[in-house]
Design goal:
Elements: H1 9-13, H2 20-26, H3 61-71, E1 78-83, E2 86-92, E3 97-99, H4 104-117, H5 127-130, H6 147-151, H7 186-200, H8 204-216, E4 227-229, E5 239-241, E6 243-245, H9 246-257, E7 261-262, E8 265-266, H10 270-276, H11 283-286, E9 292-294, E10 299-301, E11 312-316, E12 320-325, E13 330-335, H12 340-347, H13 360-372
Helix pairs in contact: 3-13, 4-7, 4-10
C-alpha cells in the first residue's frame, strides 16, 4: 500500500523540476495503513482517479495492508486494484512500461472483436482460406483449422513455433482433429497475429494504437516500443510482443468490465466481450494446476468464491496479470517487470535464463486476499 509520494525512476532520469531530495523531504516520518493512497507516475491528461476514502468505498485498510505484506517476498514490481473505475490500491510504479509476455494474447482477442462484428474476420474461415503456409508446408488436415480453433489454442497444427513460451511437447503432426484438443501452442497465437493483419489491413501494433490506446487515453503507450520477435528459421510467423504500463493495462481490464464501452463509445463490441470470455476448454482439458479454463485467448478462473463468478484473466510469464471480476466491478493488475534487453534476448533465443517469477498460483492467492479485504 502506498504510504506517501513516490518518485518514478523516469522522473528522476528526466531531471524533474522537483529534486529527489525535495521529494523525499515531503514523505511523512511515520506511515500507517490509514495514510491516503498515492500512486507513482508522471501526470497525464487523463489520469486515473482514486477513491476519496477506502473505508467508505467498502474496503478494509488493515486487510489491504495484510495483502500487501504477502507481496514483499515476491518479485512484484507494481500492482493496482480498481473498483468502479477508481483506484482503491496501488503498489510500486504503475507508469513503468515493460514486457507483457503472453498477456499480449488477450489484448489481441480484444482487437479481434471489432473486425469480427464488421465481418472482416469470419471465425469459421480456415487457415487454408486465409492463405497461411509455412516454408516446409502444412499438412492437408492442418489447413482445415479454423480461426476459432486458433483462438482456443486447439488448431491441431503442431508445426514448430517462431517464438518461445509454448508447450514444446507437441504430438505427431497430422493426427489431431482441429478444435478437439487444447494445447498451449505459440504457433496458433503467432499465426493469429498474421490472420488479423491479412484480414484487416492493419498491423497489430497500428490497431492497438488506433482502436484502443488512443480512444482509451493510454498514458504511457509508445508504438515504437512494440516489436515482432522470434526465431526466423523455425516459422514464418513471429510473435507480436507488447510493452505497456500497469495503468494502461488497467484500462484494458476496465474496458472489458464496461462491456467494451469507453466514454459512451463502443471500442469492443459487447457481444465479443461476452463471447471471448466464455469457457471453451475446462481446467481438466487445459491441464491447469490453478483451475483455469480457456476462452478466446483469455484464461477463465473457476474459483467457487462468488466474487470470481464470470471472471477472466490475462496471464503472462514472469507475473503479468489482469484479472477482471465483474461480480464485484473490480480489476486487479499485477506486474513483474523484466528489462527490454532480457525480453528481446529471450525471444531471439539468445538466453534460456528464467528470472524469479510470480506464478498464476501466486497471483490468484494475492487476488483472493484482495477480495477478502472487501467489507
Amino acid at each position: 500500500m502506498a504510504f506517501g509520494p513516490k518518485l518514478s525512476r523516469r522522473s528522476v532520469l528526466a531531471g524533474s523540476a522537483v529534486s529527489t531530495f525535495t521529494a523525499v523531504g515531503l514523505i511523512k516520518q511515520t506511515a500507517s495503513a490509514a495514510d491516503p493512497i498515492s500512486c507513482a507516475g508522471p501526470a497525464s491528461d487523463k489520469p486515473w482517479t482514486t477513491v476519496k476514502d477506502v473505508a467508505s468505498a467498502g474496503w478494509s485498510r488493515e486487510k489491504l495492508a495484510q495483502m500487501e505484506a504477502e507481496l514483499y517476498p515476491l518479485p512484484t514490481t507494481s500492482m493496482m486494484v480498481l473498483q468502479g473505475g477508481e483506484i482503491v490500491y496501488c503498489y510500486g510504479n504503475i507508469s513503468d512500461v515493460s514486457y507483457l509476455a503472453s498477456a499480449r494474447k488477450s489484448v489481441l482477442s480484444m482487437l479481434f472483436g471489432r473486425y469480427v462484428a464488421e465481418g472482416k474476420i469470419d471465425l469459421n474461415m480456415t487457415i487454408g482460406d486465409v492463405g497461411i503456409e509455412e516454408d516446409d508446408g502444412l499438412l492437408p488436415l492442418e489447413k482445415t483449422a479454423r480461426i476459432k480453433d486458433l483462438l482456443t489454442s486447439s488448431s491441431g497444427v503442431y508445426h514448430a513455433a517462431g517464438s518461445p513460451g509454448g508447450n514444446e511437447n507437441t504430438p505427431e503432426r497430422g493426427k489431431t482433429e482441429p478444435g478437439s484438443v487444447f494445447l498451449y501452442n505459440n504457433w496458433d497465437f503467432n499465426v493469429l497475429g498474421a490472420v488479423f493483419e491479412k484480414r484487416t489491413g492493419k498491423t497489430v501494433f497500428q490497431a492497438l494504437k488506433e482502436d484502443i490506446a488512443e480512444p482509451l487515453g493510454f498514458e504511457d503507450f509508445e508504438i515504437d516500443r512494440q516489436r515482432m520477435m522470434g526465431y526466423e528459421n523455425q516459422s514464418r510467423y513471429l510473435a507480436y510482443h507488447l510493452f505497456l504500463s500497469a495503468r494502461d493495462m488497467a484500462r484494458l481490464g476496465q474496458l472489458m468490465l464496461q462491456g467494451g464501452k469507453w466514454d459512451g463509445k463502443t471500442i469492443v463490441p459487447e457481444t465479443w466481450t461476452t463471447e471471448s470470455t466464455k469457457m471453451r476448454f475446462t481446467p481438466e482439458e487445459t491441464k491447469s494446476k490453478e483451475g483455469l479454463g480457456y476462452g478466446y485467448l483469455w484464461w477463465i478462473p473457476t474459483s467457487s468464491d462468488p466474487a470470481f463468478k464470470g471472471s477472466y484473466l490475462m496471464n503472462g510469464n514472469f507475473g503479468q496479470f489482469v484479472l477482471c471480476l465483474p461480480a464485484i466491478d473490480t480489476v486487479i493488475v499485477h506486474r513483474r517487470a523484466v528489462t527490454d534487453e532480457f525480453a528481446v534476448a529471450r525471444n531471439l533465443g539468445k538466453t534460456t535464463y528464467e528470472p524469479t517469477k510470480v506464478t498464476a498460483g501466486d497471483f490468484l492467492k494475492i487476488a483472493e486476499a484482495v477480495v477478502a479485504a472487501r467489507t
